[in-house]
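Hey, resending since the last one bounced:
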Amino acid sequence: MTKKKTNVRIRKKDLKSDIIQFFQDNRQKKYDYLQLSRTFGLKRQTQQIMLFDILEELHRQGFLTKSSGNRYSIALIKPSGHDSNQDLYENILGEFDINEDYPEKALQAAEQLSDIIPENEYSYREDFRDINTFTIDPWDAKDFDDALSLQKLANGNWEVGVHIADVTYYVKQGSAIDKEAEKRATSVYLVDRTISMLPERLSNELCSLRPDEEKRCFSCVFEMNDAAQIKNYRIARTVIRSDRRLSYEEALEIIQGKNDPLQKDMILLNELAKKLRNKRFKNGAIRFESSEVRFKVDEKGKPLEILFKTPTEANNLIEEFMLLANKTVAEFIGKKSKKTFVYRIHDTPDQEKLEDVARFIKRFGHNLKLQGGKKVVAASINQLLDKVHGHKEEDLVSTITIRAMAKAVYSTDNIGHYGLAFDHYTHFTSPIRRYPDMMVHRLLERYISGGSSVNKQKWEEKCQHCTDMEITAAQAERASIKYKQIEFMSERIGNIYEGVISGVTDFGFFVEIIENKCEGLVPMRDLKDDYYEFDEQNYCLKGRREKKVYRLGDPVNVQVLRANLEKRQLDFKLIINEE
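The structure tokens again:
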């Protein structure tokens, strides 16, 4: 077999094809990871990681089996041809023009970066290595870009450090890595994979705040009292050494009383976070909370169960300190100068859309105040969301209220953030996965050093690009979830479920199944009992003769009729209960 040349770029799809052909030509043999690395001439770490990912992917898909010693061989019963369903899923990447492969030049540049911190850096970086520091992330995360530290000061106050990976130390503006990161603008999180904004050498290794490793950070350090009042703060380049890597689940157990060396610190930070959170809501922040869709899958990626994760106290703890850091950085620049800066802005909601929401929720017995200023309206929205919590209409009311809101975007023109009730806000805390955060780090360093303002028009164009790419990533992520939901329901054709009408159009109405939140269409053409007309203002279909009405929010029973993976569509049949 001819070895691949290591001085040319290796694309993942090409390597995967070569691996499949190699195992088909060597059906009776078993190979471990190192043997295959040598066979394909893969000397760079990034190429070897790519090989490992492909082998594990082929193992999950059933093409390869794995025996003791992690030796791979072709499965005795090979899937015929290829997995057409998987091909359809892969099409999501092409549909949204998302490229998994990183340019070889950028990968080579990442490999050449050193993880050693020279002694001279300690002269200008504040040293937090001996202060209790930890990270809290999802259990399966590899890119830890934020950490918290805590210590008590001599005056009785608390010093809370919000430490963010110093990505721009490694990624210089205009470099090969920077150009690709700016082009991508964000990491993309599909159901079965992450397409990172940065090479894994940076995202999972150099910049990731892994435990027991010295890491460069850009930090917001707060002095606060027991009431969570900020007495002082500083923004500094730092070096840290994380003592623990916690999952949200582990952190929650500690907060809830599990005996642990971090228990006192965790409970204190949680109390401070709760006070920060209460202040936000009193100031007019809106309490939107949504559950995250997760899938339990088999070794081939086939969805077995749909799960939902809702934010816990551990999530809220991290969120509050990240919000505080983002707000503080924005105020540090925005209040003190008129220099061009990157803001995360959120406009006030459209009044007509809010009036539509107010009309709609009356049918559930709820009201919404539309006059009296931002705080009054925000407080009324929060009261509404509290009232519907735990009721069948909760998801629906929350969804249509969110739709009435403006979309948050990046801009150099600051108008504040309505949803958070902040006059100044930015994104500073996730530079591993968001390019705007890297932009903020660079501007912060420039302005702290006394540099002049950057070109506003040029940076506004960068902001617009980042907003566009964020929207694209969100659409791809939704398409990924939708595909897996359709795949899950494709094996449940004929099943009957309770649902709620979640959307009404001139061609039918959509129903969301209560138990798994999968959404499908009841086509207008299948409603044979009457001629139905679409009433857009009242979110309903009305029967011309019998006057039957199907409204947004109505409970219905549906039967799964068709599941089209190619179009990512579900068709339902309405089940009429005859009394």
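Residues 12-82 form a domain with the Arc Repressor Mutant, subunit A fold (CATH 1.10.10.10).

Sorry for the duplicate.
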